[in-house]
Amino acid sequence: MFRMRFNGSLAVGLLLLQAVFLLVLYSRQNMPLSRTEDKEKVHLLILSSWRSGSSFVGQIFSQHPDVFYLMEPAWHVWMSMFQNSAKVLHMAVRDLVRSVFLCDMSVFDAYMPRERNVSALFQWATSRALCTAPACKFFSHDDITNEKACKTLCGKYPFDIVEQSCNTYSHIVIKEVRFFDLKVLYPLLTDPSLNLKIIHLVRDPRAVAKSREQSKKALSRDSGIVLSTNGTRVDDSQFQVMQEICRSHIQIFETATFKAPSFLKDRYMLVRYEDVVQDPLREIQEMYKFAHLKLTGKLEKWIYSITHGESSGNKKEAFVITSRNAANVSQAWRNVLPFEKVKMIQEVCKGAMNMLGYLPVDSATDQKDLSLDLVLPRKQYQFSWV
Ligand SMILES: *[C@@H]1O[C@H](CO)[C@@H](O)[C@H](O)[C@H]1NC(C)=O
Ligand SMILES: *[C@@H]1O[C@H](CO)[C@@H](O)[C@H](O)[C@H]1NC(C)=O
Ligand SMILES: *[C@@H]1O[C@H](CO)[C@@H](O)[C@H](O)[C@H]1NC(C)=O
């Protein structure tokens, strides 16, 4: 009797379990659909560092018709308070980022004159949303935009248009290079008014250093802030800023993986720039999936053209992305950097390189031998968190 009852309840239990399982399957299949239907908001932070391919990855998001994108809005914070350290400015930067995610652009009142146009915003023309309708009537909403054309036509609209435009989008994407500690972002991750996701974009420190050397002057004020020099510009010939950057990558990666609190689950994604240039479409599809965005045919064509286009030479401007063979560009440091410098960078960035799968070289010969692959395949450095 007892046995019968037990079996009976077991059967009922199994049925229930099956039902729950089917329900889960069903809701999983339907989640993406209902997501796009009611346009659940996504707030995506591309967390990176200077010269790490973040302008490129930023563009990948900016050009998507569901995305309102701003590139480094916290530049305004740093420029207004350049005598402070990165650490002191963390909170103001976080507050600004939060406000922008919520499309509250009044936060810029603290850093700009009240009477201002769209063009007052740092790198505004990298934002397709600010270059197309409804922000700018000269281009239609899903046009692929270019900075130059946008700058000549779209900069004179009153600043209010930024907030109005932002409010029409489901996805707000911000690229920032001014966070050096993931814990600073915890309050945003637990904030019920936000649905924050973080793409942590890293790049081989030697490639970063090479690129930084080419834009030394443009970076010198920011470098001073990183090293707390009270407003003095720094050229980083000893790679102290590089050291800080590498330290922050370790901190962010470790905090998000081995030590991750539960609220970080499904909200953190590590991306290596080298993987993006190696197989752009695969990586972009994964990033879009993470951000709940769909890849359109138009975007796919555009991505192909910017990653396979003709080289348009060595652009001097610090923040331009151009059509060029991106995969080749990521190896350029091997022919350009003197081995002595490579050794210094490998020394200050040892931990980060080891963690992220970048192999050191022991000689100038190995450095220049492009048949040696110095980037470990993705699988070998990724852990069970993926
Ligand atoms: C903003 O643009 C208008 C033209 O629409 C121009 O008259 C004005 O001077 C601009 N203001 C600023 C602060 O650039
Ligand atoms: C920082 O610079 C300002 C202006 O140059 C100066 O007044 C101040 O005393 C400096 N502070 C420190 C701690 O050196
Ligand atoms: C890539 O770089 C290598 C070495 O710098 C060069 O020989 C090759 O022609 C380049 N390929 C393209 C497609 O630019």
TrEMBL record:
It holds the Pfam family Sulfotransfer_1. GO terms for biological process: carbohydrate metabolic process; N-acetylglucosamine metabolic process; sulfur compound metabolic process. It is found in: Golgi apparatus membrane. One of its GO terms (molecular function) is N-acetylglucosamine 6-O-sulfotransferase activity. Belongs to the sulfotransferase 1 family. Gal/GlcNAc/GalNAc subfamily. PANTHER family: CARBOHYDRATE SULFOTRANSFERASE, CARBOHYDRATE SULFOTRANSFERASE 6. This is Sulfotransferase. It comes from Pyxicephalus adspersus.
